[in-house]
Amino acid sequence: MGLEYVYAALLLHELGKEIDENSVSSILKAAGVEPDPARVKQLVEALEGVDIEEVIKSAAVAPVAAAPMPAAEAAAEEKPTEEKKEEEKKEEEEEAAIAGLGALFG
After folding, report:
1. pTM of the model
2. What is the torsion angle, in degrees rounded to the nearest 10, for the CA atoms of residue 5, residue 8, residue 10 and residue 12?
3. CA of 50: how far to CAs of 15, 19, 25, in Å?
């Protein structure tokens, strides 16, 4: 199921509106999406009896636990870039020193 269907249901929930086939279809049409009646019906049926607030709260906890991993990966990716820059700088300094020595003895 496309996220646009879920977003429509969440928007209706946030506005305190009933999540039914008509309202979900209206939101999708307003967003420029041609709703698939079967998918809309499936979504509405799947949400019957679901406490959306509870689902949102439990979903909000999961990304916090996962947050350190992407940050660690980003830091790991940054190190090689910094190391490459340092190596390039050293190579440039060495080349400059060699060129300077060449000028002295050239």
Report:
1. 0.55
2. -140
3. 17, 11, 20
Which distant-in-sequence residues (6+ apart) come within 8 Å of 9 by Cβ? 19, 24, 43, 44, 47, 52
Domain regions of the chain by residue span:
1-66, 76-106
Q: Out of 3.20.20.80, 1.10.10.1410, 1.10.10.10, 1.25.10.10, select the CATH number for domain 1-66.
A: 1.10.10.1410
The predicted-structure confidence for 37-46, as pLDDT tens digits, reads as follows 999 999 999 9
For the segment 47-105, what is each residue's pLDDT rounded down to a tens digit?
Answer: 999 899 888 888 877 665 555 555 555 555 555 666 767 777 767 666 655 555 444 44
